[in-house]
Amino acid sequence: MNTTTPGGPPSGSLTATPTSSCSRGLDSSEITQSPLLSSINLDKEDFRAACSKFPTGITITTVKGADGRPYGITVNSFTSVSWEPPLVLVCIDYRSQILGHLVIHRYFGINCLSHDQQELSIRFSQSWNERFHDIAWYDGVTRAPLLFDVAAVLECKVVRTVRIGDHMIVVGEVVHAKSSERTPLAYLERNYGTVVNSRSGCRPEPIISKTDSGAGLES
Question: pLDDT per residue over 101-151, tens digit each?
């Protein structure tokens, strides 16, 4: 699983102006290694286990295709990038069908799931054709398809896509955002859980679900 979570803007923020290099992306062959690192063999299971120790939220990225139909995918690799301009990014497996709809200048939604929306997280990581079947949704201000009862939602315009490794980074300029008082869904060590507000003075609750869905998250 990927391990980026929402946070403050780093230094050297991206600009929201697409460039010609966006279409080319970044090829893995352009990334060089030092002689020392090239002699180290990383155990991929160790890498996966280490990443799973970093808790994330769960989002569903949604977009309308050119055919007018809604499409979506479960993504836990989501983070803010810049406050000015307001930019966020999601990382999606480069093989995912949804990338054919996340084209430059198209609007899309990032739905931050509530603690009781675990089933939605699982659904949008499984059968491509069944994800929106019998699921209530509405048009946002940008006409991007949005989900009900989420903790927060951001509507964005695709301004850059970069392939790196086996994922595509999709950068979006946020044009509308809103949040609720709903407790967000959390994800840690391939299990779903809840987030406890420290201001309440309560100790964090344990993981509330032991569903192993790590293999299902496509982000």
Answer: 999 999 999 999 999 999 999 999 998 988 999 999 999 999 999 999 999
- Please count the CA atoms within 13 angstroms of the CA of 4 that sit on its side-chain side: 18
Note whether residue 211 is domain-resident: no
Beta partners for residue 194, in sequence order: 185
Provide the whole-model pTM.
0.74
Is residue 37 assigned to a domain? no
- In the three-class reduction of DSSP (H, G, I as helix; E, B as strand; rest coil), residue 57 is classed as strand
Task: Output the six-digit token pair for 91.
Answer: 């990382």
Cβ–Cβ under 8 Å, residues 75 and 83: no
Within-domain flag for 27: no
214 within a domain of the structure (yes/no): no
Q: Which two tokens stand for residue 22?
A: 């966006």
* Nearest to 19, CA basis, from 162, 155, 142: 162
**Is the omega angle on the peptide bond into residue 85 within 30 degrees of 0, that is, cis?**
yes
Q: Is the pLDDT of residue 74 over 90?
A: yes
Contact yes or no for 140/176 (Cβ under 8 A): yes
CATH number where 62 lies: 2.30.110.10
Q: Which domain, by its residues, includes 141?
A: 54-200
**51, exposed or middle or buried, with CB in 10 Å at 0-12, 13-18, 19+?**
middle
Cβ count near 159 (within 10 Å): 20
How crowded is residue 142: how many other Cβ atoms within 10 Å of its Cβ?
16
Number of folded domains that form the chain: 1
